[in-house]
Amino acid sequence: MSYYKIKDLENYFKMYKKSVREPRKFWDRIADENFTWYQKWDKVFDFDMEKAEFKWFLNAKVNITKNCIDRHLNKRGYKTAIIFEPNNPNEEAQHITYEELYKNVAKWSNVLEEQGVKKGDRVCIYLPMIPELAYATLACARIGAIHSVVFAGFSASALSARINDCEAKMVITSDGGYRGNKTIDLKSIVDESLEKCNTIETVLTVNRTNSSVTMKEGRDLWVQPLLDKAQDNHVAAIMDAEDPLFILYTSGSTGKPKGMLHTTAGYMVYTAYTFKNVFNYEENDVYWCTADIGWITGHSYILYGPLLNGATTVIFEGVPSYPDFSRFWEVIEKHKVNQFYTAPTAIRALAKESLDYVQKFPLSSLKVIGSVGEPINEEAWHWYNDHVGGKRCPLVDTWWQTETGGIMISPIPFVTPTKPTYASLPLPGIQPVLMDELRNEIEGNQVTGALCVKFPWPSMARTIWGDHQRYIDTYFKAFPGKYFTGDGALRDEVGYYRITGRVDDVIIVSGHNLGTAPIEDAINEHPAVAESAIVGFPHDIKGNALYGYVILKETGESRNQDNLRKEINQLISDQIGPIAKLDKIQFVSGLPKTRSGKIMRRILRKIAEGDFSNFGDISTLLNPEIVEEIKDGKL
Ligand code: WT7
Fold first, then answer.
1. pLDDT at 442 over 80
2. What band does 174 get if pLDDT is binned at 50, 70 and 90?
């Protein structure tokens, strides 16, 4: 265990150096000491950066669910593996032990096999955040089928695009799902999507909402009667280290979603190692990540990472605003959550509401709080740190991507001193570099550049499903010999990284490189501002000028808008410089966001440019109606 857990800052630096100088020895020992293998590897890794070919733990044989479940049964059979917190706070929470998890996953595995699912087949999972989502996902991994979980907020057309891309054989869904005060009819969305698919043979349906559904003869089955008949034990399939584990789609900057393929052993080793260290998980802690399992965050840090460590992980079906804005804090109190992991967008939304919602609860069980998904602005960082973490819990700002499989840059609690808005230092095994436009590595500190990674790590995506060339082009072309993240970053005087946002969000104004994040930080400091987004638009003299979209807090809405504009620009001027002042400031009631909470800057950019001709696909937006409002209010 000594090698697995980073003890203090000195130990971190020692481990980090070791992982760079002797990566084979480093990962060999971690993999060897902490997992159950049918057969060990011949070689720790092999790679070719140019061809973008990566292999880890060559020829090892393993099953990830044996490591997530079976091996805990002796010591932790009666320990809670999953706490299910339903959408409705009056519905009782479920505590599912490792023993029960084993039996459920075994039953599901037997059902999938009976239905003809084989090693290598793709199974699309379109379920709400209920325990069956965990069972179905783990059952796929257990029998060697490749799961592709699609977030159950995606539309029918997004779902069919994904099913068709990976040629899935089965869809697992439910009649419906609860989200706040809404019930979403998932089965009918699946029915609609399948009108455009022809690879699906079976639709397994979970009963969650007792909604009326149509069941197509010969294709659709209720899963419960099948589970009732199934055996509650199952022999896990023996998988090769590099056998595919799952495909997870991530939206590209254009067009077709990219099916990122993750494989078995490297993903297992890395998610387990990072979960333990980044959340400082200790036996008997209760860990809660509020993401959906339909995103990589949920794959790696609701399911695999926690279960690999024998942890207790919370699956929350609901939303932060239902029944009111205290739901998160109430759930933390109810289950005595020790580690809490959420997204800046949620923090900002909650910070906009009365402090009473959070101050009602002592939250004294919390030990570590985390952030993921986008740069966390300074105001949100402090609000989270002060009011949720009580200035006592380290706030881990974790930078990573669907493509990286696991957390790459993050403070380690009680080890790495935190600094607001900084993801801080790379985890052992991760070698970030900053690159300039001439494709040279920028050495030294206090520099900014395009964030790349110059050496492989175990959990990196291996390809884009069905399109290896696109994988090469997207990630390995811009900076030959390196993995390009698409993000920009700053490295400060002590080597801490601050992710400044997508590189395509950098706006050059009068020859000055301006990042959107720091300007938005400045705007958000204004007491009347809730959230903001800035984009560039063409300007005759400056090349680009800045256009700001600003959401006001309720208290700010009655203020004189011209005065507000002046005050906002004064703030920017004070914090960054007059060069960063906005030419236009439009007050809006919302920003177009993807379902994972990211602002769709592409749309804002088009509106700012006055180009209303083609916004592209806005069907995946959380709030497509906002586009019209913003367009109508354009300055
Ligand atoms: C992009 C990846 C894997 C987490 C869920 C999002 C941005 C993610 C941070 C952070 C600044 C962050 C980056 C990255 N991002 N975490 N802590 N600080 N930016 O996964 O949808 O694949 O998005 O999210 O821009 O490239 P994703």
1. yes
2. very high
> Which uninterrupted H or E stretch holds 546?
strand 543-552
Q: Which atom of ligand 1 is nearest to the CA of 376?
A: 18
Q: Which positions ≥6 away from 458 have C-beta within 8 Å?
A: 27, 45, 56, 57, 265, 266, 267, 269, 270, 405, 429
| pLDDT band, very low/low/confident/very high, at 508 (cuts 50, 70, 90) | low
Average pLDDT value for the chain: 93
Q: Which atom of ligand 1 is nearest to the CA of 300?
A: 3
User: Residue 457: which of 600, 313, 593, 273 has the closest Cα?
Assistant: 273
Task: Give the residue from 486, 500, 85 showing the smallest Cα distance to 317.
Answer: 85
Ligand 1 atom closest to 399 (CA) = 17
Q: How far apart are CA 278 and CA 592, in angstroms?
A: 31
Counting from 1 in the atom list of ligand 1, the atom nearest the Cα of 502 is 25
Give 528: exposed, middle or buried? Use CB within 10 Å, 0-12, 13-18, 19+.
Answer: middle
pLDDT in tens, 72-121: 999 999 999 999 999 999 999 999 999 999 999 999 999 999 999 999 99
Q: How many whole angstroms from 373 Cα to the centroid of ligand 1? A: 4
Ligand 1 site: residues with CB under 6 angstroms?
250, 295-297, 371-375, 397-402, 423, 485-487, 499, 502, 596
Q: What is the pLDDT of residues 239-286, one digit of tens each?
A: 999 999 999 998 654 446 789 999 999 999 999 999 999 999 999 999
Nearest protein Cα to ligand 1, atom 23: 401
- The closest residue, in CA terms, to atom 18 on ligand 1 is 375
Rounded distance from Cα 375 to ligand 1 centre (Å): 8
Give the pTM: 0.84
DSSP SS3 for 339: strand
Candidates 192, 189, 182, 227; CA nearest to 206 is: 227
Reply yes or no on whether the pLDDT at 544 is more than 80: no
Rg (CA), the chain: 24
First to last CA, the chain: 60
Residue 244 β-bridge partners: 263
- Residue 137's closest CA among 96, 105, 92? 105
Q: Which residues contact 450 (CB under 8 A, 6 or more apart)?
A: 434, 435, 436, 478, 479, 484, 485, 487, 488, 503
Which pLDDT belongs to residue 505?
59
The pLDDT value given to residue 255: 46
CA of 249 to the centre of ligand 1 (A): 14
The rounded Å distance from CA 517 to ligand 1 centre is: 14
Q: What is the pLDDT of residues 133-163, one digit of tens each?
A: 999 999 999 999 999 999 998 878 789 989 9
Q: Please provide the DSSP assignment of 358-380 as one string.
A: HHTS--TT--EEEEESSPPPHHH
Distance CA 410, CA 29 (A): 22
